[in-house]
Write a structure and sequence with these properties.
By secondary structure, the protein is an alpha/beta fold. The protein has two domains: 179 residues, 3-Layer(aba) Sandwich (Rossmann fold); 173 residues, Alpha-Beta Complex (Argininosuccinate synthetase, chain A, domain 2), CATH 3.90.1260. The protein has 13 helices and 14 strands. The strands form three sheets. A five-stranded parallel sheet has the order 3-2-1-4-5, with helices on both faces. It has a five-stranded antiparallel sheet with strand order 10-9-8-13-14. Strands 6-7-12-11 form a four-stranded antiparallel sheet. Strand 13 and strand 14 form a beta hairpin. Helix 1 crosses helix 7. 39% of the residues are buried. Bound molecules: arginine (ARG). Arginine binds next to helix 4, strand 6 and strand 7. The site of arginine has 11 residues, from helix 4, strand 6 and strand 7.
Length: 393
């Protein structure tokens, strides 16, 4: 019997895929990647496992990949300040290459000849999965049933699931398509497709609405070491706990929402709502610290790198030579990115209000307008004359 390893989410699509592949002669092994989608009031991984079996899987792997996700994917992107089109912290995009990596590993272990995913033919995720699988093992066959099967609507899939007693929750109306992990939540479809309409409050899962946020501000101080967050308000945290904690407080203050009409890799514009409280706080704090410790040229050049880095992640090119080279550059810039940034959270906003670092390049005796001034203003005249010389008529 042919074996296939399916990246299984527990949703309607991947549940139907299990049965659909089984009907076509495959032994289906499901792989559930735990990237933190179960944190808080998130998804129930045990229920997902049971559903996979009920749908016809012969075996289910659930792997807790949260630490690997954070250390090898989230932190590098944070150091790089990678944000796609200015608003998307790439939670979904960063997770895909990691899921694909483990999908390939399980396929090897199980001696499967194919892997499968539940992505549609219109999105970015199919590209990220398949490009990554191809990079890691070009011989593995890749199946994408959603791109070719007969179902034309959600209703048809529900009918199919019911026919085969696949336990799916059809009573609950599912107004959005949601992808969730520890770094953030991506929400699309349904009423969100109407660009002229403000996203309804019910699309947000972890950030409080303006009417439910506290009226007072909250201050938190984040300490980084070589670009990696280590402490909150003086208390050391492991990365997973640190991110979870910031998701919690940031969410209370409505921090980290964004509404983006983005350019998909396949050429379609689409609207997606994102929630990423921890990511937003950490990105802003990290950037603020870099302003303090990086020299001007490195800081400006790093902004170009951030743009490219975010594209590579979004385009599914995580395992590419350029991404590796950019990581080397980014890591070399993080040597002195150590220090503390105090942030104020208030009514959906998050701003840096104070900073300190032993590597700070800020010299008060140079910038001051007070009497401690050590800057020799007379030297400016010669500097300007030479600087402007090539442009003089
Ligand atoms: N637009 C985002 C991306 O391409 C998220 C895609 C998944 N979104 C979802 N709601 N299922 O990375």
């Amino acid at each position: 019997m042919k074996k296939v390893v399916l990246a299984y989410s527990g949703g309607l699509d991947t549940s139907c895929i299990v049965r659909w592949l089984a009907e076509r002669g495959y032994e289906v092994i499901c792989f559930v990647a735990d990237l933190g989608q179960g944190l808080g009031k998130g998804e129930d991984l045990e229920a997902i496992k049971e559903r996979a079996i009920a749908a016809g899987a012969t075996k289910v792997y659930i792997k807790d990949l949260q630490d690997e996700f954070i250390e090898d994917f989230i932190i590098p992107s944070l150091k790089a300040n990678a944000i796609y089109e200015g608003k998307y912290l790439l939670a979904t995009a960063l997770g895909r290459p990691l899921i694909a990596k483990h999908l390939v590993e399980i396929a090897h272990k199980e001696k499967a000849e194919a892997v499968a995913h539940g992505c549609t033919g219109k999105g970015n995720d199919q590209v990220r999965f398949e490009v990554t699988v191809g990079i890691l093992d070009a011989k593995l066959q890749i199946l994408a049933p959603v791109r070719e099967w007969e179902f034309k609507s959600r209703e048809e899939e529900i009918e199919y699931a019911q026919m085969y007693n696949i336990p799916i929750d059809v009573t609950k109306k599912k107004p959005y398509s949601i992808d969730r992990n520890i770094w953030g939540i991506s929400i699309e479809a349904g009423v969100l497709e109407n660009l002229e309409q403000e996203p309804p409050e019910d699309c947000y899962l972890i950030t409080k609405s303006p009417t439910h946020q506290p009226t007072y501000p909250k201050y938190i101080e984040i300490y980084f070491e070589k670009g990696v967050p280590k402490k909150i308000d003086g208390k050391a945290y492991k990365l997973k706990a640190l991110i979870s904690h910031l998701n919690e407080i940031g969410g209370q203050f409505g921090v980290g929402r964004s509404d983006l009409v983005e350019n998909r890799l396949v050429g379609i514009k689409s609207r997606e709502i994102y929630e990423a409280p921890a990511g937003t706080i950490l990105h802003l704090a990290h950037k603020e610290l870099e302003s303090l410790v990086l020299d001007r040229e490195s800081a400006h050049f790093k902004e170009l790198i951030a743009l490219k880095y975010s594209e590579l992640v979004y385009y599914g090119l995580w395992y590419s030579p350029l991404k590796d080279a950019l990581d080397a550059f980014v890591n070399s810039t993080q040597k002195y990115v150590s220090g503390s940034i105090k942030m104020r959270l208030s009514k959906g906003s998050c701003v840096a209000v104070a900073r300190k670092s032993s590597h700070s390049l800020y010299k008060k005796e140079l910038s001051t307008y007070g009497k401690e001034d050590k800057f020799d203003q007379k030297l400016a005249e010669g500097f300007i004359r030479i600087w402007g010389m090539p442009y003089k008529k």
